[in-house]
Amino acid sequence: ARARAMSTTSKAAMKNAMRRKRRREDEGARRAATATTMRSGTGDDGEDGGSASDGAGEIERVERTGAYGSYGSMSGAMSIEDDEWATAQRTWDALAAALPASLREGKVWMPFYYDGDAGKRLKQSGFKKVVHKKQDFFERVRDRVFVKSCACVVDNPPYTGKGMKERILKALKGAGVPFCLLLPLGVLHSAMVREILDAEHVQVIIPRKCYVMKKGGTEVPFRYLCWLCYRMRLERDLYLID
C-alpha cells in the first residue's frame, strides 16, 4: 500500500513538473512576442487608434501580474494585457455628468482604439461629435489643423510600458489641445505630471469605481483611477464622482 501511495505521489509530482515546464515555455514564447510587438492605442473604442511606432524602442515592457493584471497600478508599470480593457458605458456616463455641457456640442477626439466601441459609448453619453478612428496617434497629433478643430481629447489611453504615459502627455501638451485621460491615481504623485504639465491647468475627476471589461466580457470594477484633466476649464479643480 505504501509503495502504491509513493507511486501515485510520484506520478502527481511528474505531472505538476510537466505543467510548470509548459507554463514556462508558453511564458517564454509570449515574452518573445511581446518584445517585437506592441499594441497601438488600447484605451477603447473608435475608428482610429494610436500606434506607438514613434520612439517605441523607449518603452520598457513589463510582465502581467495578478488575476486582472496591474490595471490601475500605482506604480504605473502596465503590461500589454493590462491595456486590453474597454471602458464600460456607466463609466462614460459618470464622466459626462462632470464635464461642461458645452463640450457635448464640440468635436471630441478619442484617439485610442481597442474594441471600436468607445466612440459609440461616448455618443450615448450625450456627445454629438466624436472622432474615433484607427490611426497612429503620434502621427495624427502632429496634424495641427485637425487638432485645432477638436474641443478636447477624452479617452482611456494605453499604459503599455513605463514610458507610454509620458509620451502621450508630452504629445498632447505640445499640441495645445485640452484633454481628459483615465490614468492610475498614482500619476498625481509622480514627478512626471509636475515636469510635463503646468499645475495651474491641472484638474482631477476621481471616480469611486471605474467599470471596464474585456471585449465581449463582463464588467469589472476598478479603483485607484482618475480622470486627469488639463486645460479643460472645469468649474472646480477636484470632483469626486461615483
Topology of this structure?
Layout (H helix, E strand, L loop, with lengths): L1 H35 L43 H4 L2 E2 L1 H10 L8 E3 L8 H7 L4 E3 L5 H4 L3 H5 L3 E4 L8 H12 L3 E6 L6 H6 L5 E6 L2 E4 L6 E3 L2 E6 L7 E4 L1
Parallel strand pairs: 2-3, 2-4, 4-5, 6-10
Antiparallel strand pairs: 1-7, 5-9, 6-9, 7-8
How would you describe what is shown here?
By secondary structure, the protein is of the alpha/beta class. Helices cover 34% and strands 17% of the residues. It is built from 8 helices and 10 strands. The chain has helices at 2-36, 80-83, 89-98, 118-124, 137-140, 144-148, 164-175, 191-196; strands spanning 86-87, 107-109, 129-131, 152-155, 179-184, 202-207, 210-213, 220-222, 225-230, 238-241. The strands form 2 sheets. A 7-stranded mixed sheet has the order 3-2-4-5-9-6-10, sandwiched between helices. The chain has a 3-stranded antiparallel sheet with strand order 1-7-8. 37% of the residues are buried.
